[in-house]
Specification:
The protein is α/β, with parallel strands linked by helices and 232 residues long. It has a single domain (52-66, 73-223), classed as P-loop containing nucleotide triphosphate hydrolases (Rossmann fold). It contains 10 helices and 5 strands; from the N terminus they run H-H-H-H-E-H-E-H-H-E-H-E-H-H-E. It has helices at residues 3-20, 30-57, 63-66, 75-87, 104-119, 128-136, 147-155, 172-188, 200-207, 209-218; strands at 93-97, 123-127, 159-163, 191-196, 220-223. Helix 7 packs across helix 8. It is globular, with a radius of gyration of 29 Å.
Length: 232
């Protein structure tokens, strides 16, 4: 048998085998497809909830505000919260100002929880003093990070809440670093909320006209002048 004859025989044999076999393409029923889609959605939701839980745990939220048993979201507090929620994810620079006790820090915490649950993005709550402490740590000879690297770390959070602006008399270096961080976050279009126990005019004097202009463009100042939660 020559090679051509062998090839024809092989083709015939393969054809006979295929003809003898019963190949049936079984498509899933609509019910099975729906069940699979439901399982996929449930797995995705479990992953999302786990990611939210992990990001909130890493946001350094003050325990007292995070574990507040009851929160009245009515009145001016609720209006301020709604305003902040509407800004979430827009790349805003905004501020909460006013006296002691109306719940400004609580609003910052609630915004972080809302932001993480909505966008599943990293967020951080920090005081201005803590921010400068991190930056000054780069001065040590044994510091593993430079000043620039620390600034980049604070830039990566999609929402950064900086509390207690009024607790520090900023030096020229601190003001430059503060401007650099907030300006970069403005350029990055990431959300930044400032919180201070001071008037709107005092805040503008503290951050300077350039940042005040950026704040006016993207978020504005919310004056929290309703009664104190601590001393009703």
């Amino acid at each position: 048998m020559n090679n051509d004859t062998k090839t024809l025989a092989n083709v015939k044999s393969a054809a006979e085998i295929l003809a003898a076999a019963e190949f049936k393409l079984t498509l899933p029923s609509p019910e099975q497809t729906a069940a699979w889609q439901k399982e996929d959605a449930e797995r995705a939701e479990v992953k999302r909830l786990n990611d939210v839980k992990r990001l909130i745990a890493r946001a350094s939220l003050p325990k007292r505000q995070r574990e507040l048993a009851t929160l009245d979201r009515g009145g001016e507090f609720g209006e301020a919260e709604s305003k902040l929620r509407s800004l979430s994810g827009t790349g805003f620079l905004a501020a909460l100002v006013g006296g002691v006790g109306p719940g400004k820090s609580q609003l910052g915490v609630e915004l972080i929880v809302h932001h993480v649950e909505t966008h599943v993005q990293p967020a951080l709550f920090v005081t201005l003093t803590e921010l400068f402490m991190h930056l000054r740590a780069s001065f040590r000879n044994d510091s593993p990070k430079t000043e620039l690297e620390i600034l980049k770390e604070f830039r990566r959070y999609r929402l950064l809440v900086i509390d207690e602006l009024s607790k520090i008399a900023a030096t020229d270096w601190e003001r430059r670093m503060f401007f650099e961080l907030l300006n970069k976050r403005y350029e990055d279009m990431t959300d930044t909320l400032l919180i201070a126990n001071m008037s709107a005019s005092d805040l503008i004097g503290f951050i300077g006209p350039a940042l005040a202009s950026r704040m006016n463009q993207t978020g504005g100042i919310i004056v929290c002048d309703w009664p104190s939660f601590r001393n009703p």
